[in-house]
Amino acid sequence: MIYLGKGASVVRQVIHAIISIALRLFFRRIEVVNVEGVPRDGALLFVLNHPNGLVDPALVFVSMPRRVSFLAKSTLFDNPIGAFLLRTFEILPVYRRIDAGAKSESNAVTFENCYELLRRGRCIAIFPEGISHDEPQLQKMKTGAARIALGAVSDPFASTSLKIVPVGLYYTSKTSFRSEALIRYGEAFDVEPVELESNGEAPREAVLQLTAKIERALRDVTLNFETETDRDTVLKAEALFSSVFENLIFKQTLTQTVKRLQDLAAKYALLEKNDPQRMLELNARVTRYENDLKASGITAESLSVLQHPTLYVFRYLILRVLFLIVFAPLAIVGAIIHSPAYLFSNLLGRIFRTHDTDVAGSSSAIIASLALMPLTWLIVASILWFYFDLQVALIAIPVTILCGYVALRSSETLIDMRVWLRSAWLLFRQRALFFRLLVQRQSLQKEIGELVEE
């Protein structure tokens, strides 16, 4: 869903639509949860975790039901084009001590701008961790969000009521094309005014208390693990557990996945503390199961495909084969035309993994595709204009876009079919191994389920 808010300029609307389309193409699924609980009126301060560079604000920007101004690091304003786009969306600079040449005292102007926006009943979004990162848990909260909130509600001459809304972001893969993203809106809570000190700042104790409350609210809507090892262990267990239920008809939501991951993370932590031997044994069994799957050449999800009646699977495959055959000409043309832009975007995404001290995630690849894909369409149109006429060139633009989309869907269908056919081949050639993997998975799923219920 796309929200533009009231009073959006034409430039803002166009850029908003472009960003939304780019995100929908990059991510196979974008799931938004509890957005209906966001207050439609009054000043709001959104606080978010920050795992994926510029993609984080872009996702929230197109999903929020309110017009919002972000706070972003000041170094993004160094580029003239970037500065123009940022100002178009009323993004305010934050001067961080970790950024070279940044003067943190300049934040006073930014804070005043925030107070003014909030007094007008507007919305501001901020990343209180202060940095985009790859760590398995939330980083130490900066106090800026709490200082802005308390300053806005506590000014005796121009105070305003304010609610804080935590927003959690989760990605199945931050850098993989056609991965999935989840945006979870938490419960809004009020900010109570305090008596300001003589310098106009909120008391340090009040700032720290509100910062701690913001952190607790963010932890409720995000995934947090003590170590990378803990994260990998829980992710493997959840993938195995959920693969029992997922099939051609049913696919669980990302919300269900994240809630189960949160439960597993808490239970695994307790198990590691209270019964480390059982923890080691369970991990060893999960690892053996994964190794057996890899050796057989299939995935955990593909085991579920052949639990359907044979006729159903056969019909499902036939329909997809027909789709591939009918749209093959468009898919081939689309793949040939768009492959240079796709490959170059991925290359840039691999090269530019960081920006200053921040993790860029998939930001570089998406930004590159925003430039290269339209450039591809214009090049095709220009060539056709040269050899034919302007009318043919104009018609070629939407046709080229359609071909690219068909190529994208066809490639996904081919990947899915390869998994299903490999599973069918395994069942046909090595039935004993196939059923042993099914029994092994069922046993592990039962043990993991019992662990969650304990």
In short:
The protein is of the alpha/beta class and 454 residues long.
What does this molecule look like?
The chain is an alpha/beta fold and 454 residues long. The protein folds into two domains: 10-220, Glycerol-3-phosphate (1)-acyltransferase (3-Layer(aba) Sandwich); 228-454, no CATH class. Helix content is 58%, strand content 11%. It has 14 helices and ten strands. The strands form two sheets. Strands 1, 2, 3, 4, 5, 6, 7 and 8 form an eight-stranded mixed β-sheet that branches. A two-stranded antiparallel ribbon has the order 9-10. Helix 7 (228-243) packs across helix 14 and helix 10 runs antiparallel to helix 13. It is flat. The two termini are 39 Å apart. The model is unreliable at 1-6 (pLDDT under 50).
List the helices and strands and how they pair.
Elements: H1 10-26, E1 27-33, E2 43-48, H2 55-63, E3 68-73, H3 80-88, E4 92-94, H4 107-119, E5 123-126, H5 144-154, E6 162-171, E7 179-185, E8 189-190, H6 204-220, H7 228-243, H8 254-274, H9 276-296, H10 310-326, H11 328-351, E9 354-355, E10 358-359, H12 363-387, H13 390-429, H14 431-453
Helix pairs in contact: 1-2, 4-5, 5-6, 7-8, 7-14, 8-9, 9-14, 10-13, 11-12, 11-13, 12-13, 13-14
